[in-house]
Amino acid sequence: MSATADPSRMPRRQSAEEVRALLAGESPGEELLRRLAPELGLHVVDLFILAGLAVPDDLAPLDAGAAQWVPCIVMDAVHCPEAERRQLLEHVHSLLRERRSAPFDPERFGPVADGPGGRLIRMCQYRNLSRTGLAHTLAVVTPTYLSASTYGMIGAGRKELTPGLVTDFAALLGIEARQLAMLAGAVLPEPPRPPAQEAVDAAALLWAARSLSAAQAQQVAEVAGSLRGDSGGGYRVNLPGR
């Protein structure tokens, strides 16, 4: 599909190659992106970021202050049995959404460049993950263990976005790795292994936590710690199934 195609004639299902061609051409409008994202199985906010457009306020996390607690929620949750992970996700969904008190500014988590690495870091920022939070969360949810400053370099385009990193970002973002690589302009030389169930559940929980205020996120973090139980045991970096 060319960048000048009539949006009203777009087929119901779009391939990653077609969407990448669209994003590489004339900037698509907000209405088109909102309509296209569900067809791709993507969150609308992620498609805005991949298109290099400003994210509308209604697609942003409720409270950037929740970033203090979100990594703890995820890291404790993935150490719980699957049934308790589902219970925690249901608890997050049950909480009433509070009123937004301030605009969401991803720049508080650090600037990013316009490139594949910057886009992936920005997608994590819109899940309330700072560089430190991203480093901690990826270290537990995936096999990757890098410093917060290294993620800053990835976001700035000063460090290569390797196939392994793309695969791990995809697991945390809840996006199929080959699709994410195609949309972000990265290359995967071979089909990646599917993510562990813990990573799948972590991605769902990370997304749901975007609706939490800082106070709610703290409360959910306490619940996650209680469900886990072994609060003094630290975090494992080789979860079952990875």
In short:
The protein has 242 residues and is an all-alpha fold.
How much helix is in the residues? Answer: 40-55%
**Principal-axes shape call:** globular
Strand content: under 5%
* Biggest beta-sheet profile: none
What is the overall pLDDT average?
86
Structural class: mainly alpha
Number of strands: 0
Number of domains: 2
Task: Tell me the span between the first and last alpha carbons.
Answer: 37 Å
Any low-confidence stretches, pLDDT <50, length ≥5? 1-13
Oligomeric state of the chains?
A: single chain
Number of helices: 12
Helix-strand string: HHHHHHHHHHHH
Task: Spell out the key features of this protein.
mainly alpha; 2 domains; 12 helices
Give a description of the structure.
The chain has helices at 16-24, 30-40, 44-50, 70-77, 82-94, 116-125, 131-141, 148-155, 163-173, 177-184, 197-208, 214-228. It has twelve helices and no strands. It has 242 residues and is mainly alpha-helical. Helix 4 (70-77) packs antiparallel against helix 11 (197-208), helix 7 packs across helix 8 (148-155) and helix 9 crosses helix 10 (177-184). The chain has two domains: 7-56, no CATH class; 64-228, no CATH class. The radius of gyration is 18 Å and the shape is globular.
Give the secondary structure arrangement, pairings included.
Blueprint: H1 16-24, H2 30-40, H3 44-50, H4 70-77, H5 82-94, H6 116-125, H7 131-141, H8 148-155, H9 163-173, H10 177-184, H11 197-208, H12 214-228
Helix pairs in contact: 1-10, 2-3, 3-6, 4-7, 4-11, 4-12, 5-11, 5-12, 6-8, 7-8, 9-10
